[in-house]
5'-nucleotidase SurE (Aquicoccus porphyridii), 259 residues
Amino acid sequence: MRILITNDDGINAPGLAVLHEIATELAGSDGEVWTVAPAFEQSGVAHCISYTHPMMIAKMGERRYAAEGSPADCVMAGLHDVMGDRPDLILSGVNRGNNSAENALYSGTLGGAMEGALQRITSFALSQYLGPQNVHADDPFEAARAHGADVIRRVLSTNPKETSDYQLFYNINFPPVGAASVAGVRAAAQGFREHTRFTVEPHHSPSGRKFLWVRGGEQHRPTAPGTDANVNLDGYISVTPMRADLTAHDVLDTLKAIE
């Protein structure tokens, strides 16, 4: 199996090293793992692409490249410049912090997987929820490291029949616990954290200029029962099937009234 990996935390992020281990296990002894990741951190860029300016790409080692662009840029670079033959699988992550609930909409990690799906390649985004039980551990990524390859294999074994123009990709979030405390795996819809919003916080520099820092909301507020953040906080790995189709299909019939 040939696998392309990327992330949004940058080429030197520890989560990318964990993902390389996961991908190497999946690829097998006869497989290949290629890395094309952002030269610098690209958290929060979602599915951004560098449409109005070029990006530099540099070879860092055998099958390892850094690009001055977003995760979606890196996927395109991997597919159309670096690899030659297309990969069988694209993995993005392992993100430091969860991409459950509304975080999914901002996530560069998901942006990489989404681009893979738009390029018609099976793609996964992987993120490690952090909390009191693992954030200060020697290995905060232990749950992802121990369970990542198995979860991906289990999803691939279901072999869902693709019927949409917008191909599926998968959002996997590992719970904020150690590997031994993972309760299992749950297929879960994307949730919504009530009363949690991204905001900005103003600060002034020594010169008096005003700057705004973006701040996230409370990450340990549960979502509805059975949805992603809720099962994560109960110790389960969540697997959420997603598409890039943003249409609110449930409203289309109502809108017929405007025709």
Remarks:
- Residues 96 and 128 are 6 Å apart (CA to CA).
- The longest strand covers residues 89-96.
- The chain has seven helices and eleven strands.
- The helical segments are 14-27, 71-82, 103-106, 108-118, 142-158, 228-233, 252-255.
